[in-house]
Queue: 2 jobs
Job 1
Amino acid sequence: MKKSVQAFMSTVLGAGMLLAASAQVGLPPVPGAHIVTITPPGQTGSEPAIAVNPADPDQVVGAAGRWAAYSIDGGRTFTPVQPGGETVRAGDPSLAFDDKGNLFYCFLSILKNGLPGYWGHGPGANGIWVRRSSDGGRTWDKDAVAVIAWKGDEPDITLEDMPRIWSDTQPKSAYRGSLYTAWIEWQMTQSIVLFSRSTDAGRTWSKPMRISTKAGLPRDDNGAVVGIIGTVAPDGTQYVVWNEGLNVTLAISRDGGKTFEPSRPVFDVAPPYFGGAAGIPGVSRAMGFPQIGVDGQRGTLYVTWSDFRNGDVDVFISRSSDHGRTWTPPMRVNDDPVHDGADQFLQWMAVDPADGSVYVQFYDRRDDPNNRKTRVTLARSTDGGTRFSNYAWSNEPFTGENAFLGDYEWCVAYRGRVYGIWAEAAPPGYEVAPPPSGTRAPSGPPRTPTIIRVGTADFTGTR
């Protein structure tokens, strides 16, 4: 992107978008709320990721597919970039800063899917790549590094999906500086979780190894292994979770990802895919995939997810104080009445490494008796996850028809400041730019286009 365009976009995205959150019914506003749209004009996005640099918290970067946006003022303004290059078909992005302030953008590229849902049947060229930025997202290495890649003509080709990257920035860890990524591999007969690590700042990656002891079903639906994400404890122990059928499964590595203990289910959940007779009105699909976080001071592990055990969809959390051996019964994070018919969904959790506060962000429909108008809520716990206060974050509700919000949103927290990123239905009249040459238009019913927004909350003066 030319400098003049960058300057224009920085002005457009940064000016006039300081939108204070208006309170939902019964909810106080997020303190220090600031919301900005980071989608370049005419573009759309979903499945976003966000990261903050612990070495320089003014550096905040969001990404959604082919494009990203960086901030050097703590999320007040953003400038768009294309970390995947002009022609790469990037998807399922995730971001992580390492202990030296390098930023890593992990993504998949699929030139040809297999059969609908049954992706291991007949896929083409695809793979998982990582690209590095050494300046907080302004510029990126020219070439991405392949973690795993298929040319498309191999007889044993599989499809790689939903990669997530995380890093070890723990000061006392023997593996500090290591990078880790895990993802789903769709095979003809099963789905499995693969894992790879880098010990040289992302220049090379280890040969992928399977860490899921039990395989999932081979179709992208309930019964597969899905929603992989990991975290690192202060001693360098890695905890990785995913959905495996109707449970959350945990895998642990104590040697920097060289080996893993056999993965095991830790507690039951309802189906992670929400569809069936109703699904979530106005949304093309939604997932309840888990996230895991660790409080380095208390040693507590947390896992959040969402499911419809109460009829409508709610957000839940469970805690472990014995390194994942046992877990507390599920507790609702959203504090509206049980069985009120309002969905809370697509949650994401962040644990502040500075003070152990737990934050959970989610879409929330408690204001609308018809369960259509959607806002974003942020829940906060300062007592080890035993109680949560809910705050209104987004400024106006949105609705859509067949809107694809993605399979996840994202949030991060550092020293009392929280940075969330999410997709919203674009405002009426939003003009979408024509897709790049060679890009196939999505099939199926018309979709309300979606844009990406970043919200900032400031709890530094709040107990």
Note: Helices lie at 3-14.
Job 2
Amino acid sequence: MTPPENVRCEVAVVGSGPGGAVAASTLAAHGRNVVLLEEGPHLSLDSCAAFSPEEMQQKYRCGGLTTALGSPKVVYVEGRCVGGGSEINSGLYHRTPPAMLDRWRREFEVESLTLRDLEPHFQACEEDVTVCLTPGPTPLASRKLGDGAQSLGWRSMEVPRCFHYDGTIGCEGVPQGKRQSMSRTFIPAALAAGCRLAPETRAIRLRRVNGQWNIEANTQGRPVTISATDVFVAAGAVQTPALLRRSGITERIGDTFSVHPTVKAIARFEERINYPGLGVSVHQVKEFSPRISFGCSISSPGYLGLAMLDHPDHRREVLSRGHQMAIYYAMIAGDTQGRVRVLPGVDDPIVTYQVSRQDLRDLATGLRRLCELLLASGARELYPSISGVPRLSSADDLSLIPTELPAGRANLMTIHLFSSCPMGENRRRCAANSFGKVHGQEGLYISDASLIPTAPGVNPQGTVMALARRNALAYLGKL
């Protein structure tokens, strides 16, 4: 819908990613009058090729060029379209590790957070987005991880995905299908239940007026006000604290921002492992998790070219041997806590994240073990994402990787953001209660990865969806 100057509803949900879409769908299905706001455009999943430069322009915030300031800087990405991050990620799905649930209950005093508590919410969401394994062979670039892990005696797994397979067979005999993003699942369900969707509508601030929340917003260049009895903020781990802080709500808001810092390496094999439409690997190596995990990243020609910037003397290799190359990563569950802040008159928040020396050592360990794994899987050449480290081609070369990543030469990124407004009953540490209600605020809830208390060590979308469903049902009194 295109909102008129003033809109009234029972519940406004700000942000349409996995947290907001699940919350809006659950609330609308139970008869609530819901308006779902999204800053970005409403685009189909097929509006452009997946993992392409066009997709970055259409669906990423700032074209994917967002950075947490620190030494080293950490580049991160945010979805900015209807469906949020689910429209641009790989759909890999994990349930929350039990050890993490135990930690969050113990340290943050989160109630009703056992595996038994979350089981029905995991199951319901998994059915709605058809979480499944690949019904056939997986890509060779993906299997390389499993082969290397097996030769080293390390634990690996094929990760299920939010995916629907339609019987089409692609290169290497790999089954093809569609990612089951929010724009294909929960958002259509919400609309069918009566929810109203307002794309290209940016929430600027919240004001409490006469027992109601007024959301001051801007849609397509003109101001609008959305009045709601209750508000669920689900704009993501950066934009949610930014909106709350612009609204004068600051207690424990944006003080504990966390990510999964990630370092990469390009591997070249003798055989062809890369082709158009390769997508993202479904294998991950979990031998050292939750602290360190390994996987395969987007490896299209453009991404290979960017990853090779640390090795300028070998950039032409991408043109001649790109079909033999793929990008792999080592990801850590860092302990660093960054901050999200806003400045008067500035649209974009300031995000800071200072990677600790221990995290730099863990990243170096992860990169070294990743390269060991890739050599064991048959890689002939490795190009780590550290400026000044040469191409590696043997186990002896691994000693060239520093024991601590040099802050000035390491190129880090992340796609997992969380923990900026942690949930729990420990008021000294938590911005919201165990079910997402902001402490000290009536009718104000959070429903996204901001609530996750610490870095979970796995792809967080499964956790976000389960918590969103659980918390929406708690709000309805139907938990």
Note: The mean pLDDT is 95.
